[in-house]
Automatic annotation (TrEMBL):
E.C. number(s) listed in UniProt: 4.1.1.20
Main function: Specifically catalyzes the decarboxylation of meso-diaminopimelate (meso-DAP) to L-lysine.
Pathway annotation: Amino-acid biosynthesis; L-lysine biosynthesis via DAP pathway; L-lysine from DL-2,6-diaminopimelate: step 1/1
The keyword Amino-acid biosynthesis appears for this protein: yes
Record-given protein name: Diaminopimelate decarboxylase
Amino acid sequence: MTSLIQPLHPNVQSFLKTHPDITIDPKDGLLFGTTSLKIIAEQYGSPSWIINSDILKSRYERLNQAFKNKQLDVSIHYAMKANGHLAILDLLAKEGAGADIVSGGELKRALKTNIPASKICFSGVGKTEDELRLAVETEIGQINVESREELHQLSKIAQKVGKNAAICLRINPDVDAKTHHKITTGLAENKFGIAYQQAITVYKEAYQLPNITPLGFDVHIGSQISSTTPYRQAFLRMVDLIKAARTQGYDVTTLDCGGGFGISYQNEPEANPEDIAALMKEVLAPLDLKLGIEPGRWLIGPSGLLISKVLIRKDNGPNTPPFIIIDAAMNDLIRPAMYEAWHGILPISPEAYLRPSEALHIDGPVCESGDVFARDRILPSLQPGDYIAIFDAGAYGSVMSSTYNARPLAAQIMTKGSQSAIIQPRQTIEDLWKNELVPSWYPNNI
């Protein structure tokens, strides 16, 4: 960084320290990996989603290598709900990943990108009869059964299809992951999984039901977890459960360890794959199990961002920071409105970094008071026409977008170094109603 750029505010410096894939170049401005966001913004406009394939690939390789270094054979099932775009699935499939799905639609998406059925696990507390039938017919690797009722329903479906269903029982270990209350899944009060106290009883039933092949157990305690402490608590409970099942004469060959590995949105530490691998080696390796994990956010979150443009700078007097209204909105990225989520925001142009820093409110244009991206955010002074990047938006970003306020869906672009390609064109206004119908019986005259 040279003297052409104003000294960055300590908050910005702190953010950059936990985001090594983001750099500010005096000439080219904001770089995402080796991709110039200035060039991307000028070429594709805004709002636009950017997925950096280099970053995604390197994160998968790091995760995979962490287990190899510990001599652990761990199946990595990418949690498609984080971002199920075909281009992302294709890249991860070529790296060797399987898929963790939560719907029949995700199952068909995974198969379309040539992820083998044997590498697919089906999670979710409310699978439909049609979805379960498709999973059995396709002979996917495992179905993570979330209730006794689902287990019996699945047995009946498998009998009708004439095939066996390989299952793991998803167990709720009643472990507090110390994460946001809307993304915790491992407490007894949560809707997910079979109560720990009922696990052995239901596992015995699985052995007695026709067309059911019990493999073992699945545990998932929540999302955005940075510490290994809650994983240790959950894994130790599962060790006790596995030993109890084996003592009673029931085979347990598989433990799906779930996902939920946290990332650094602000300056908090992200989950460390090497620490997770070491924990699994210490606690689980002695049981001689086939192990699996279901990462989503950790892989794709930091690999994606949202580009937006400043529409107007609205000054409301000396006692209120200026409102910076951008062309992205809560219909594009709903996480701040839904979870009060914090996302890093930086200007893209190098010229912006010549300006002094100030506190700014960053808001979208949607007619909702909750359409807020940041409050009192310290940034270089932003002006109309400036492009900004909203970081760590690869997970639960584009996949949760809507067309609220008749706003077309943003374009999606994938980059590799200086190369870029549209992977989903920007929706047109006309696209919004092309599948809408007015009933023929509606009166012509009122």
